[in-house]
Amino acid sequence: MFVPRRSLPPLNAVRAFEAAARLGSFKEAASELSVTHGAVSQQIRLLEEWLGAPALFRRSVRRVVLTPAGAALLAEFAPALDRISAAVQQHRERRGDAAVAVLRVNALATFSLRWLLPRMSRFRAEHPDIEVRLSTSNDPVDALPDKFDVVIRGGPDTFHGFSSRFLVSERRLPVCSPSLSAQLPVNEITDLSRHTLLHVTSMPRLWRDWLTEAGHSALEPAASLSFDHFYLTIQAALDGLGVAMGPTALIADDLAAGRLVTPFPDISLPARSYFAYFPAGRSNDPHSAVFCDWLEQQGRKTG
């Protein structure tokens, strides 16, 4: 299933949600944003209608409490708003500077959130003469309505009018939080029968395929939870809700920081790697080459 181009919620609704979620109060969010309490409520209602079930908050008389779905969104929205604010500040600080090269990049949303954006400040510091303008989409490379200098998708694939190059490899394996592993140790594969397994609805056989690869195809977990995006299953694993099938590229930073652990690092499933695709006439662009060289170098560090 492909996400429509620029399928993004209204920014004002996102800001209202982030403030209310962070402060635990619609009233305090209204004060911070200099709007009325009713305006915050309306914006959050708009966001919940735009997203659909499940709800983002549990309401009480004086406070609001995030649901698990709301907490997962906050974990992604808050850093994204911080990055937007930082980008605006950088833009203002660049006034009067020499012109920079603009590189238009389109990448998968989950890859952008979990891998690319956390590294972009480093790229900017090392290459201040290149301004990366990032947008996200799950559309096929040759179905994008706008033109981009670099498109990052899974691969290897062949698209008419595009060349490609490898960026980041990936495999998939079970991951969980250290606290969950301490409460219910996962020393043997059979220990997974005591745990909740976290699934991605678009890949319903992922866990079953891994258990088959591990020689335990008949194992049944204590419970299962399903989410519609990889980043939600990763966040659920970080929050200790269960054991997820983690894409190695997207969890590299969490593994390095000790926020996630891999109970069975020697058993993994192959996955499509990430590739950069260039439209005809742009494959030799020097700024695209610098950007992709840098991404490949970062990929080797996290592979």
From TrEMBL:
<dbReference type="InterPro" id="IPR058163">
    <property type="entry name" value="LysR-type_TF_proteobact-type"/>
</dbReference>
<keyword id="KW-0805">Transcription regulation</keyword>
<dbReference type="InterPro" id="IPR036390">
    <property type="entry name" value="WH_DNA-bd_sf"/>
</dbReference>
<dbReference type="GO" id="GO:0003700">
    <property type="term" value="F:DNA-binding transcription factor activity"/>
</dbReference>
<feature type="domain" description="HTH lysR-type">
    <location>
        <begin position="9"/>
        <end position="67"/>
    </location>
</feature>
<comment type="similarity">
    <text>Belongs to the LysR transcriptional regulatory family.</text>
</comment>
<dbReference type="Pfam" id="PF00126">
    <property type="entry name" value="HTH_1"/>
</dbReference>
<dbReference type="InterPro" id="IPR000847">
    <property type="entry name" value="LysR_HTH_N"/>
</dbReference>
<keyword id="KW-0238">DNA-binding</keyword>
<dbReference type="InterPro" id="IPR005119">
    <property type="entry name" value="LysR_subst-bd"/>
</dbReference>
<dbReference type="GO" id="GO:0043565">
    <property type="term" value="F:sequence-specific DNA binding"/>
</dbReference>
<comment type="function">
    <text>NodD regulates the expression of the nodABCFE genes which encode other nodulation proteins. NodD is also a negative regulator of its own expression. Binds flavonoids as inducers.</text>
</comment>
<dbReference type="Pfam" id="PF03466">
    <property type="entry name" value="LysR_substrate"/>
</dbReference>
<keyword id="KW-0804">Transcription</keyword>
<dbReference type="InterPro" id="IPR036388">
    <property type="entry name" value="WH-like_DNA-bd_sf"/>
</dbReference>
<dbReference type="GO" id="GO:0006351">
    <property type="term" value="P:DNA-templated transcription"/>
</dbReference>
<protein>
    <submittedName>
        <fullName>Glycine cleavage system transcriptional activator</fullName>
    </submittedName>
</protein>
